[in-house]
Amino acid sequence: MTLKLSRRSDIPMFRALDILREANARAQKGEDIKRLGAGLPCFGVPQPVLDYAKDVIDRDPRQTYTEALGMTLVRDRIALYYRDRYGINFNYERVAITAGSSGGLSMAFIAAFDPGDKIGICTPTYPPYRNIINTLGLIPVEIQTSAETDYQPTAALLEKCGEKLDGLVICSPSNPSGTMLSESELNKICQWCDANGVRLISDEAYHNITYAEPAQTAAKFTDNAIVLNTFSKYFAMTGWRLGWMVLPPEMTDRIKKLSESYFVSPTTISQHLAYKVFDHMDVLDGYVAYYKKNLDILKAELPKAGFKKLSNVKGAFYIYADIHNLTNDSEEFCRRMLGEARVSMTPGLDFDVARGHTTVRICFADDTNDIIEACRRLQDWQK
Ligand SMILES: Cc1ncc(COP(=O)(O)O)c(C=O)c1O
Q: 285 to each of 208, 233, 263, 266, 375, how far by Cα in Å?
């Protein structure tokens, strides 16, 4: 007898990870793949931070659970970071440490919404928003953005969306487009959400990886927003699986209870690393300068391979390219690129189910020499 699998877990596969698997399989067979696919920094956490963590383990090999919302020391360090970085003051009690920002994302949706609630997501979008919304019985409302608004929502676009939203997810700098909301538009969106009773979830995973203006946090403009952040991107700690949230004061207790039941506590050793990594932001800023160099190379070289319409990247490490001149099947295009040019990219369908068949996402967090070689291969391939 075949037993049932839930309908709600039947979500689309994440093509970025699928391409990563295929690129890894090819690399294992000895193929030299240049990776513009999955969004991983090519750097790790600075060495002194690792040394500190080793020392912590030597002193206390047991590494037991921490409090469900994380170590007070680390929550306090994060609150201090918001004071220094954004000029805003709040108590550490509003900070929750999470199992990556992915852990925070699930808890945020559960704490803020009930099944049937309508949540606005702005396409092209980070795909897990849609998947988590669907698995929780919430209703995604896709707000289509375009190159005209830098693939970001505006308060005017939200006003026209035609649905009574219960929640809205924004992401600036954006995955997949690297574009950003201006400070004034972010403020307008925060005010629009407050005025319309919409709970804002602001995914700030790529803050500090910016190439012009620094990104602003929604926490500066409203206490009602759930702010998500991560140690995976700027802090280059992907595998340590740690993130955090800045919560509306009345939500902290709910998140604490959810965290107790879902995770017990965030990973202890990773919290030690997180505490120390704030002392090495000069090294992390060096990583950002490196990504900027990669971006400049791609902006110069990609058009020569036919990738002519690139998003207006101001942060993160992604370019979203409109390639309708090259294909109307981005998935097949990316598979062929991997097989023939040995370069990986992510098909736009991951990010935009309706329009992503003519777009791709290009990640530039990899080694500069590999980026140069990838451009050369793409130019040859498109000759
Ligand atoms: C926009 C965005 N939010 C959240 C995440 C999840 O990051 P993590 O769970 O590693 O903190 C990612 C990862 O790629 C992302 O791009």
A: 8, 12, 31, 26, 25
Residues 249 and 224 in one domain: yes
Same domain, 223 and 158: yes
The widest CA-to-CA distance across the chain, in whole angstroms, is 61
**Pick from 246, 261, 279: which residue ends a domain?**
279
Q: Which atom, in ligand 1's list, is nearest to the CA of 230?
A: 11
10-residue mean pLDDT profile of the chain (383 residues): values are 93 79 89 86 94 95 95 98 97 97 97 98 96 96 95 95 95 98 98 98 98 96 98 96 98 98 97 97 97 98 97 98 96 93 94 96 95 97 87
Residue 159: CATH number of its domain:
3.40.640.10
Q: What is the 3-state secondary structure (H, E, C) of 53-77?
A: HHHHHHHCCCCCCCCCCCCHHHHHH
The residue range of the domain holding 251 is 63-279
Q: Which two tokens stand for residue 21?
A: 């698997």
In this structure, the dihedral spanned by the alpha carbons of residues 157, 8, 349 and 236, taken in order and rounded to 10 degrees, is 90
Asked whether residue 78 falls in the same domain as residue 226, the answer is yes
Q: Are residues 154 and 116 in the same domain?
A: yes
CA angle at 157 for the pair 315 and 299, rounded to the nearest 5°: 30
Looking at the DSSP bridge assignments, the partners of residue 163 are: none
CB atoms within 10 A of CB 28: 8
DSSP-derived 3-state class of residue 228: strand
| Residue to mutate, 45, 97, 101, ligand 1, most ligand atoms under 8 Å from C-beta | 101
Give yes or no: residues 247 and 127 share one domain: yes
Specify whether 274 is located in the same domain as 294.
Answer: no
* CB count in 10 Å sphere of residue 335: 16
Q: Kindly state if the Cβ of 171 falls inside 6 Å of ligand 1.
A: yes
Instruction: Report how far ligand 1's centroid is from the alpha carbon of 244 (Å).
Output: 11
Residues 248 and 316 in one domain: no
DSSP H helical ranges for 113-220: 127-135, 155-159, 183-195
Together in a domain, 227 and 333: no
Task: Single out the residue in 260, 279, 298 at which a domain terminates.
Answer: 279
Could you please report the per-residue DSSP string of 149-166? GTT---HHHHHTS-S--S
Q: Using DSSP bridges, classify how beta strands 318-322 and 359-363 pair: parallel, antiparallel or unpaired.
A: antiparallel
Contact 304, 286 (CB under 8 A): no
Amino acid at 67: E
User: Ligand 1: does its nearest atom lie under 6 Å from the Cβ of 230?
Assistant: yes
